[in-house]
Design brief:
Largest sheet: 4 strands, antiparallel
Mean pLDDT: 93
Strand content: 5-15%
Number of helices: 21
Low-confidence stretches: none
Strand order of the largest sheet: 1-2-4-3
Number of strands: 13
Structural class: alpha/beta
Oligomer: single chain
Radius of gyration: 29 Å
């Protein structure tokens, strides 16, 4: 139980001792610091139960609070709002408990296994800026879930089984028609064939194939036929498809690695398709498939729907499986292989209809039981300074690698440490650039569209990733310089700024709980900035290393260590690395 929850529990006991047992109490941070640091509004609620004047209830509670030396500045405002502050002794105790273990102020949740689907990269296509949010938010949510005690498993869920791959294979066939993959009479081993294709080639091939498919019906139909051959494991076509997936996956892994995004599972849509026969049997036996214009669909609409929910496309008229069907097969696969309590899908909010269809179809066929939570965690778009999605100079969607390079150019300008070699500056700049991108992306509530300005968010001042990194490195430097000084415990607090830092630290569990409840990281991003800014104010007000009062100096060093450790813990939760120096 967190320190904050323990405080609430103790106040609940005092309210019971006052003669008013109540299961829930509402301890809130006060907006009127002149009246107190915290406020209790329970007297107003207890009136409904005990039918007594709220002021009388408040007076009885205050008498109990006054007996406890952890509380000070106790007063009643208005008809019965109780205000109070925490004593300096209690704040010292809080800081020392945090120095012992940061987890003293983190609430652990009941055990739960969660699969988080937050990759969604399409094989043979360049990752673009739209992939940043899914990977970034998903990775941070996974780390946050693990922090509070869940078992979270990240799945890249690569798009490797649909028509785009059919288009790519078709275009390769047009470019290299003599490859053995396309020879029906070839009986040799496909693994030793020299495929003259790199990932860079694939990133050019798909756009060209897509362009042709839009203007040439015959080309599109041929791509559809090849897609069916891949899904039917037709020799040659299936084998070149496997090679393409290998080539593309290696590059995708590198980009995700640059973003500090790590998946426990690197499954693609194709991995779930071994469950397709079983999936089809389930829907057939339950009579859930309906013929529609040569296709097979699942009706998922309800009489209570305020808008029409179209049927889910199960099998296309040409015999290929749909994107919706691979998602259903994946749900079945996850249930059988992992059996999670929940499945979270961190995908663009514009895909909400797709997931509504899939989740309804899954529940209708009992692919998961009623206790299993399927949840789409949607997010808004990242836009450029013009308010529109990032584009290349020719108007195309900007590759994610290009965006990283753009930010890296800005952060490299800020790395001016003369003690660093050019190689160290480049390495550090890359870390800072990723921090700038990730922090800016997590700062707004996830469903909000936001504008990313590479110059603004790469700045060392303001609400930015680089600001947090620079401040955290300075804390570490201070602690290293003071390594021979005593740093065992806080003895006293000497300023209001120090007390404000402790109150902010006490609020940690509330922030983490809200973040996991809303499944958004903006609360933690804001908290980091507030805590770091308070510490920087403290740092500017005091000369820690030259302080002659040893009790005060030791207290300051322990406070610094707690804030540093908290920053490192929460930055890691956001998936942000901290360089050695800047």
């Amino acid at each position: 139980m967190s320190l904050y929850k323990e405080l609430e529990k103790e106040i609940k006991k005092l309210i019971e001792q006052a003669g008013f047992p109540e299961e829930n109490i509402s301890l809130t941070t006060s907006n009127r610091k002149d009246l107190g640091e915290y406020q209790l509004n329970d007297a107003m609620q207890l009136v409904k139960i005990y039918h007594t004047n709220p002021r009388e209830i408040a007076n009885s509670i205050v008498k109990e609070l006054e007996k406890d030396n952890r509380f000070t500045n106790i007063n009643i405002a208005g008809p019965g709002f109780i205000n109070f502050s925490l004593s300096e002794e209690y704040k010292v105790e809080i800081l020392n408990k945090m120095h012992e273990d940061l987890y003293n102020n983190i609430d652990k949740k009941a055990k739960k296994k969660i699969v988080i689907d937050y990759g969604g990269a399409n094989v043979a296509k360049a990752l673009h800026v739209g992939h940043l949010r899914s990977a970034n938010i998903g990775e941070a949510l996974k780390r946050l879930a693990n922090l509070v005690g869940y078992e979270a498993i990240g799945d890249a869920h690569l798009g490797d089984y649909g028509r785009p791959l059919g288009l790519v294979v078709l275009e390769i066939k047009k470019l290299y028609p003599n490859l053995p993959y396309f020879d029906e009479n070839y009986t040799g081993d496909y693994t030793n064939i020299d495929l003259p294709i790199t990932n860079a080639d694939l990133e050019k091939i798909y756009p060209e194939a897509s362009r042709k498919a839009k203007i040439d019906e015959d080309y599109l139909n041929e791509a559809r036929d090849i897609t069916k051959k891949i899904q039917s494991h037709t020799k040659g076509y299936y084998d070149i498809w496997k090679r393409i997936v290998e080539i593309s996956k290696a590059d995708i892994k590198n980009v995700y690695s640059d973003l500090n995004v790590n998946f426990e599972l690197w499954y693609g849509e194709s991995d779930a398709m071994e469950y397709f026969p079983e999936l089809e049997k389930i829907y057939c036996e339950k009579h859930l498939l309906t013929s529609s214009e040569g296709a097979e669909v699942v009706e998922v609409g309800k009489d209570t729907d305020k808008i029409e929910i179209p049927p889910l496309l199960f099998i296309r008229s040409n015999g290929t499986v749909s994107y919706e069907t691979t998602d259903l097969a994946t749900i079945l696969q996850r249930r059988k292989e992992i059996n999670p309590d929940e499945m979270w899908y961190v995908v663009d909010a514009r895909q909400s209809l797709h997931f509504e269809q899939v989740f309804r179809a899954a529940k209708k066929a009992n692919l998961v039981d009623d206790k299993t939570n399927l949840e789409h965690i949607g997010f808004g778009t990242m836009n450029g300074k013009d308010g529109h999605p990032f584009k290349t100079r020719d108007g195309g969607v900007m590759p994610l690698k290009s965006l990283i390079d753009m930010v890296n150019e800005e952060t490299l300008k800020k790395i001016t440490n003369q003690s660093m070699t050019e190689e160290e500056k480049k390495k550090t700049s890359k870390i800072v650039a990723i921090a700038a991108l990730k922090y800016a992306d997590l700062l707004p509530y996830r469903e909000t569209d936001y504008i990313f300005d590479p110059t603004k968010f790469s700045d060392l001042e303001g609400k930015t990733g680089p600001y947090l990194l620079y401040s955290t490195i300075r804390m570490k430097s201070l602690l290293n310089k003071a390594k021979d000084l005593k740093q065992e415990k806080v003895i006293k607090l000497s300023s209001k700024t120090e007390e404000d830092i402790v109150l902010n630290i006490l609020n940690l569990s509330t922030v983490i709980n809200k973040a996991i409840d809303t499944k958004s990281l903006n609360e933690i991003a804001d908290y980091l900035f507030t805590l770091t800014s308070l510490y920087n104010k403290f740092y500017a007000e005091n000369k820690v290393l030259t302080e002659e009062d040893k009790a005060k100096q030791e207290s300051w060093l322990v406070l610094t260590k707690v804030v540093y450790d908290l920053n490192m813990l929460l930055l890691n939760t956001l998936g942000i690395d901290v360089p050695e120096k800047m």
